[in-house]
Write a structure and sequence with these properties.
By secondary structure, this protein is an alpha+beta fold. The protein has three helices and seven strands. A hairpin with a 5-residue loop joins strand 5 and strand 6.
């Protein structure tokens, strides 16, 4: 009696299709997770975690960092009025919502540091901080919010480099 093995005929084709699918998923992920390029002169200052999540990028006068706001906020779904109040209380200065649902706020801490914070659509806070509230601070705060929007417009996530 002859054995019937229909899968043997299709195994090379299945392997090819699985490989092709994997390559497409990897390419799509790479395109969506484009790590940002900081303005010229900014250098990475490694954090203690080693994962890059607490790294700071600074040019010596201004610094950028990031923080996952929704991890500390149990009910995060979107940048709604309740979440806006939460981040306002957390940072100690008012936040405002843009037409495209970003939250942003700026203020000065008790220790004299100026902050400009943008919370994106996923609850990620991008923070510019400096002891100087000057034209450079204004320039980098505009660069930050415009870059977040630009990456989204291109279908990419705005993420700090993770090393």
């Amino acid at each position: 009696m002859r054995s019937f093995r229909p899968l043997n005929i299709y195994v090379p084709h299945i392997k090819f299709l699985v490989s092709l699918f994997a390559m497409l998923v990897i390419n799509a992920t790479k395109c969506a997770l484009a790590q940002i390029s900081f303005p010229k002169g900014f250098k990475q200052i490694k954090g203690e975690l080693g994962s890059g999540l607490d790294d700071v990028y600074s040019n010596g006068r201004y610094a950028f960092s990031t923080r996952r706001e929704f991890l500390a906020y149990d009910e995060y779904k979107t940048n709604d009025a309740k979440f806006k109040m939460y981040v306002s209380n957390a940072y100690g200065f008012p936040f405002f919502q843009t037409k495209d649902s970003l939250l942003w706020g700026t203020g000065k801490s008790d220790d004299g540091i100026f902050y400009y914070v943008v919370v994106d659509w996923g609850g990620e806070a991008y923070i510019l901080h400096s002891y100087f509230n000057d034209s450079g601070f204004s320039y980098y705060s505009k660069w930050l919010i415009m870059s977040i929007r630009e990456y989204r417009k291109k279908g990419k996530l705005f993420v700090f480099p993770l090393h």
